[in-house]
C-alpha cells in the first residue's frame, strides 16, 4: 500500500501493533518513492495519530481465513485499533470509512461506523466486483 500511495503522491498513515508492522524493507522503499513525489508515509502504533486529519479510514479484519486459531490472541492485540466513532472523530469531518469485507462488527469496526453515513463499504464492494469482471474479460481476451 505504501508503494502505491507514494508513487501516486498520496500521503498514508498506517497504525498497527508492534509485531504486525510492515516489513522495514517496504517502508524504506516506499519512503524513497515518497521523496520523488512529495508524499508522506507515516508508520505508527497509535491509531489516533494515523487517523488525525485523514480523508479515508480503512481497516481489514483482524483474523483472516486460515488464522482462526489465533482469533482470541488477535482480538486482544488489536482491540485498541477498532474503528469507532471516537477514532472517526479525529479524521476530517467528511472522511469516509472503507473495509474490504467481510467485516466483523464489534471487533475491527463498530456498527455505528460501518452502517453509518461515512461508510462506503458496499460501494467499494460493488466497484471491486466491476474491476474483477474487467480483469476476467482481459484474461479471456488475451
Provide a descriptive summary of the structure in words.
The structure is a single chain. The protein has helices spanning 2-8, 24-37, 47-51, 71-78, 85-88, 111-114, 121-141, and strands spanning 12-15, 41-44, 56-59, 96-99. By secondary structure, it is of the alpha/beta class. The strands form 2 sheets. It has a two-stranded parallel ribbon with strand order 1-2. A two-stranded parallel ribbon has the order 3-4. Helix 1 (2-8) runs parallel beside helix 2 (24-37).
Task: Provide a compact summary of the structure.
By secondary structure, this protein is an alpha/beta fold. It contains 7 helices and 4 strands, in the order αβαβαβααβαα. Helices cover 44% and strands 11% of the residues.
Helix content: 40-55%
Instruction: Give the low-pLDDT segments.
Output: none
- Structural class call reads alpha/beta
- Supply Rg: 16 Å
Strand content: 5-15%
Give a quick account of the main beta sheet: strands, pairing sense, barrel closure. 2 strands, parallel
Helix run count: 7
Rough outline: globular
Write the layout of secondary structure elements.
Layout: H1 2-8, E1 12-15, H2 24-37, E2 41-44, H3 47-51, E3 56-59, H4 71-78, H5 85-88, E4 96-99, H6 111-114, H7 121-141
Parallel strand pairs: 1-2, 3-4
Helix pairs in contact: 1-2
What are the defining features of this structure?
globular; single chain; 142 residues; 7 helices; alpha/beta; 4 strands
Amino acid at each position: 500500500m505504501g508503494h502505491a500511495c507514494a508513487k501516486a503522491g498520496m500521503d498514508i498513515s498506517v497504525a498497527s501493533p508492534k509485531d504486525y508492522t510492515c516489513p522495514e524493507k517496504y517502508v524504506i522503499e516506499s519512503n524513497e518513492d515518497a521523496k520523488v513525489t512529495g508524499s508522506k508515509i507515516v508508520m505508527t502504533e497509535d491509531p489516533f495519530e494515523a487517523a488525525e486529519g485523514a480523508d479515508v479510514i480503512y481497516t481489514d479484519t483482524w483474523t483472516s481465513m486460515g488464522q482462526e486459531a489465533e482469533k482470541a490472541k488477535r482480538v486482544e492485540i488489536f482491540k485498541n485499533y477498532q474503528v469507532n466513532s471516537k477514532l472517526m472523530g479525529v479524521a476530517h469531518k467528511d472522511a469516509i470509512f472503507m473495509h474490504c469485507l467481510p467485516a466483523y462488527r464489534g471487533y475491527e469496526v463498530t456498527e455505528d461506523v460501518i452502517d453509518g453515513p461515512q461508510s462506503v463499504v458496499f460501494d467499494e464492494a460493488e466497484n471491486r466486483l466491476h474491476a474483477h469482471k474487467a480483469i476476467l474479460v482481459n484474461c479471456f481476451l488475451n
